[in-house]
Amino acid sequence: MKKLKNIEKTELNRQFAIPAFSGGSGIFYIDDMIYIISDKSNVLSAFDADKGQIIRKISLQMDGSLEENIMKKYKPDFEAFVPWDGRYYIFGSGSAKHRFDLVIIDEHFRFVERSSIKNLYQAMMEMSGIGSLDFNIEGVILTDESALFFNRGNGPNRKNGIISVKNWLTGEPEVTAFKNIVLPAIDGQEASFSDAILHNGHICFLANAEDTRSVYDDGKVAGSAIGLMHLDTLEVLDYHVIERDVKYEGITVYKQLKEPDRTVFLLCDDNDFEHETLISQLTVFWGK
Question: Which fold has domain 7-286?
Fold first, then answer.
């Protein structure tokens, strides 16, 4: 498969809404199933698009309880849903004291364990200089060499960037670098990361903009964008605004097509004021 070079054009099509499910923040597609997390839930939901319904709910708690629609001041704020080495990792944002949890799910989507990664996040804050009011992890990419944590720069000091960590899952993680990333504004509002995945040797990321300077309080949405980034240098190679009214917070590969070379992604939105989650298809046509 060719290396990605640039985004020639994009096509966005809204597909369907998942009723009675809100706060979509991470999504993964495999074996004709859409797995989705919510930032205000302790549940991983399996959605069958053909049947148009959630057919399985996986608890993200040790006691197996299915706790959903949690009040904002208590929600776990799970934001990143990442496959790696035969397992799935679900990360809290770290944007408040009760949002430091990591959940591990096995290859059959069964609960394995839940633990606090507060020490890891605090080490990341210390090395990067990102204070607690600006710390807000929205995306994570895991590789054999290191982990990349995408901090959403919607806090008062706009610390949008990527924190690199070696040995992140051990008791002695090594925080190696922080790179500040300035993204093009959307409708006059500063844009910041909302998710990221590794695809065909490059980083594909989502960004959005809203009228707020807080990692805790939401604001009026200005729009969402998709970007392409070099994995080694973290250079932004391309960036396209895809929507003006929706805040997309999760991205996963749906299918790869040829002639022309294009990738179809599935996106989930985080509508803070509605009791449903929108699933959209985004087709990205890659430049030659």
Answer: Neuraminidase (2.120.10)
